[in-house]
């Protein structure tokens, strides 16, 4: 985490500086070139093969997995006429999702949720031109396999459509990839809610904190994706054309649903923290009250016992603890103790500090929408 | 809940994928075809009957109850020329309320509150064309019976008007269906307020939490409905025309009233939580203070009693507890205890820790608008 | 409160349904018909008299007190050509203040604060046409008496002006009617502030809660009035003309002042709640600390006393409590107790737990703007 | 405060009602009439002198100190053709700062901070025409002396410029007059921060409360001034012309700086309150923990001592407290006590409740930007 | 800090007043004059040399280090035709970052983070004309060395471009200079998070407070920089031309990233404070509960021991403590104590107050995205 945070070109570097990352994957370049009727899929080693493909096919999708070879990225930049600043953003993995229009292409940055690995994000950059789509990923493995399958099988209108529809299909896969993650968080929120209501263990606190932090990050990941898709819809670029907008609008709705869910979970989590604190203090209060009552009752009794434990000599004078030799002294002392103890118990009950059983639940209003309680 | 959350097509599926839901109801299709003078109402089994109806009548309302047969939905999509994405939204029950304009129809999604069942929502999708209204519901039973009655009896201008007025009437019924729910929550908020002020039982906490959560969900249900109706008003679609806008404006006012009420209840509920915590701590403080005072008074007394319970031999020297044999020893010890105890009581009263009766309420300012207090 | 909340037409009713309210007042209709030079004021029983008046006078103000007779309201709707939805809003007392433009009139809803009765609001509806103003109130008694007096006496420009100036004058009276209420709340906030700072009694909590709730409601009452007046200013209706706008702008300023005051009081009240909690815990801490110190000092002393109260037989061996027969045993025990007690007192002082008098106020910075403290 | 709050005309009064304030100062009218080359300054008694001055000089500044004579204000209104509503605002001292354009003049209301007196505000109203500036203040004494000096000495471009530049110069002086106040609050915030961190005395609470309230009021004073200046810049009045806009822009920047500072102080103050509460509870916890440990150790010891203080007769049977006559009874009892006591101490240390010295500060990360700590 | 805050011209001073600061550095003026092919770099003493340079070279960058000589600043103002207000802002070090367009130049104020010194900001002012860039800094030392190097070496397009590109390069260096600072805060936040979760020491509180304050200030520093760059992009000044906008857009993205990071850290820090308080109270509760349990068990036992320590004379009557002489008296008393003690222990366990080991972590749901726990 810390290491990654620190990989930026130093302040004052010329724009478009591509900083090498020693740990980055070697790029693997895979091409899907297709038209309505045919499709060619292969891995290419030499970038020179590209020009032929671009001329021969209506749409060419070039998928670069791994950013470890800056030369390849620079060459691709030259072939497609890409701006140095955009290339810098491809390599520099701190970008917020965004869409930037250039003269003859659109540059899109998005963040893909890892499908199977633990909480992880991968930056996916796209250059969308009239006849090509160029995508960069940090490492192999992505949410695009179903899209590739659709391309190969020619399912739906993906092979009939232009490169912008392909870009939409990939963005849609990226966005929808957040739903399974939110489902898992939804389950977790419900589990924690049950746990907090059942018994407030202290180890719930760091877990609620982690949950809150994760949801915050999730929101921060999804929010700019919404803006990015909105920008694509509003923009009047010749590359992203009208018929695709209705699909992007659907994609936009999905980001709004994701944000809605995240917001709901965030609110519930914040409420759980309060609930936890309140439950902890309720439980503590219960223990304290018991001590308080026991102590308050026994303190005067103990004092009486201590009193008659004093060693004053009853023989020294008739005023000196004559009770000790009084035949009914002991029963009197016990009776005094019982009287004081019972008096305190009654006082506590009268003040409502003990023994008031909580008012029975049936005379309380039911929550609207609650299924009727069985009697 | 969890099951429902997970019913989405996998990320990367082609748009317009209709995912079958095994638990969905079999569709029942009911048609209301009407003009100013006549009305025909029937259930249809074959979709081919539709075309005749659509031609013969000024307005045709097709109400599909149950989404269990994807073929029926697909056929309806073909008959009315509906977009695949909209059909996907009909089946996928996670939509936010929204209104989307297409070339010759408007697609509306709304959420209907269940009338009699416990807290439940049902997604209602509408396609509004020039001469038809197509509505989809999840299951039988809805808030539309009064509207159907108006259609049958020809009450008001509903039979004179176009399909857009019918759509308004249904939306209005959906929106107004939230009022009884909010009334019930209003009663609950007042009941809980009374309960919190009367005595802060711990079981109020999960109930306040549930109430807060419900109100949050309610707000999230109503908020996009407001936007949806606003979009219908602002849109200049040939399908939803000017004369109906004044009715939608009324409907919009109702959503604003609903949101206002929800906001009020949310605020009060948040305040109740604070009030509860404060009342709990007040009550606990009262108990603790009593113990504190009792303990602080008896601790020194007990010490004195313990002192004269020591077994030093007064015969060993004149310095060894001569008080024990002193004729006034016991009265002196009792007097000492009384002095210490009374001294502490006076000290506590002086510091205002006990015995200050709360200042009588009459010398406090009355709340403005409070009815004058009887003396 | 609850009863009132429930008086709505059922969901699905046709728009414009006038629901009868059995408890509503019988309407009393009073007319002010006037021009620059003359004025006629009377109560009318038959609505047919109206047409003559409307023709004869430049401006006619029809004031309906009480909504108990739906026929009268329907007839007025026909005479002035009012929309059914607007009439429904007149009768249905849940409206937010608003201004809606119709073809030849404006429909205005506002909420009037009760002048002398306890906290209460009354819905006032107005229809403003070129030559008439039609106002509906729930019950007799209002803030308009000074306006009526101006009409009768012809003070100011009210008789020279059109109906829109009269509408402004009434709205201005409604808005300004909130100032006395806010003054009373201002006094209450200051009283509660004094009370909280002086001594935090538990009964302050429900009062702060009620105050917060009232201020919240007040804000919700005033806020839409601001929007309503703003809508009147921005609208370019032929009925509400330019020269009156400068007056409405003044009225708008008043609503902003009202909101400013309400906001201030709300902030202070929220601060008072925190202040109360902090003061309660300060006071409790003080009591607890005293107990803590007393208990911590006497517990070891009591232990020593208990030690020498043990009944081991000193005669059994020289190791068995020889102190009891030691001539200096008792003074030694007392000395030991004194040493332990004093040691603890010094330890507490050293740790700053007791006896540190609070640092004297003179070496603390004065609050800016505070009058210099007398020495 | 309360008295002032209540001085408003009653609701329903005609607009433009000038309510007399018995405590208002008698007006003193001072005129500065000037052109690039000359200046005439005098106090005038008769308003008739005005007309001559207005004709003779390029710019005339009429400064009215004191609002005690409504006749003077009415006459000025007639001479300059001022609107009744504006004159009402001059006298009614509850105005928010604002700028309102009239046909041939602008009406500006601002709030001046008192220079040397304690926390106080004075309402300053200005009417800015082509060749005149009319200013009203509540009482003598203001922040304008340096501006007057500039006029007299002809320093800067003030004598060359029009009346609008003079209005700017006065507004600038009003705005800049808040900087010294914010400086004092800045000092106070730092002092309180030191005090809270050093030792949390209870008397800090009302002071933090007062500070928060003051800063809230300050923000409410400055905020509308920003809007007012912005309105002056955006407005295209013939009176306030383009070349002055660049100066107003500078003035606007100052209001933004003021708001920035206020916001910073408010945030810090809110944080201080939390810090205070946390420090109080830390300190209380420390005391409580000490008691807890002492009590928990001595309670079992006291019990043992009590046990051997029981008076069972060892002669009655060999089971009846034979220890009392056992030669090693006393050492055994002492040893038992020591063992229990030490056991508890070790247990407490093991659980980390006592004796863990706080981890030494050097192994904690330094705050970035902190000067390196001396070792 | 305080001293600096107070250095403003007094309210009412003429605009453009340059207030001398006795502690300011003497200015050092360094010129970079360059074209695509050549570059001249030197320090100049006489401002007269400037005119020649300005004529001879396509771009001239004049860098003034130190604001201690107001004459120099005034002369530069005359040479370049700068507005007095802008010059005042150069000297007055309280400016918010901003960009103001003048006729033939743009005035830019920004805040540079100190590179190596502790937390510090330096105001950098720029005047950007067609062929010149004039920059003012408070003191020597800045983030511009890499830019100077690029100029000298002619790396990138900086020497081919106009003065606006140079201005962009400097702004970019200023903005990027905040990234290392945010990295350090990111490390600190993680360190504090670890510390809070590990053990809540009281000294974390002032550190969290300081961190929160620093992050607040940081946000306040960066926020207006974002607006400033946005203003530069939106403005259509002839000085800052279209081709540079794409670079500024990149710079804008960086400010948004900075704000995003700051926001994240602020949220986490706020959460840490709550976490700290909750951990402190958890730990305190643990200690208190132990005391409570020990005390509650021993108090009744101590009472029994005290009872049999009473000195009633068993010989006085058969009712007077016959147990003392009963052969099984002592075992009975011990048994009674054991029974009471064990009874209380069972009662506590039954209520879940002691001995319930926290439910083992394996049966709790894992956090999504958490690496699987080793068993």
Count the beta strands of chain A: 7
The assigned structural class of chain A equals alpha+beta
CATH topology of the largest domain in chain A: Beta Polymerase, domain 2
CATH superfamily of the largest domain in chain A: CorA soluble domain-like
Explain this structure.
The structure is a homopentamer of 375-residue chains. With 375 residues, chain A is of the alpha+beta class. Chain A has two domains: 23-275, Beta Polymerase, domain 2; 283-353, Methane Monooxygenase Hydroxylase, Chain G, domain 1. In chain A, 52% of the residues lie in helices and 12% in strands. Chain A is built from ten helices and seven strands. The first copy, chain A, has helices at 2-5, 49-56, 70-80, 84-91, 145-153, 163-176, 178-198, 204-234, 242-307, 329-350; strands at 28-34, 39-44, 59-65, 98-101, 106-113, 121-128, 132-137. In chain A, strands 2-1-3-7-6-5-4 form a seven-stranded mixed beta sheet, with helices on both faces. In chain A, strand 6 (121-128) and strand 7 form a beta hairpin. In chain A, helix 6 packs parallel to helix 9 and helix 8 runs antiparallel to helix 9. The longest helix of chain A is centred in the C-terminal third of the chain and has 66 residues, at 242-307. The first copy, chain A, is rod-shaped. Mean pLDDT of chain A is 84; it is low at 357-367 and 369-375. Chains in contact: A-B, A-E, B-C, C-D, D-E. The interface between A and B is large, with 78 and 83 residues.
Give the key terms.
Methane Monooxygenase Hydroxylase, Chain G, domain 1, homopentamer, 10 helices, 375 residues, Beta Polymerase, domain 2, alpha+beta, 7-stranded mixed beta sheet
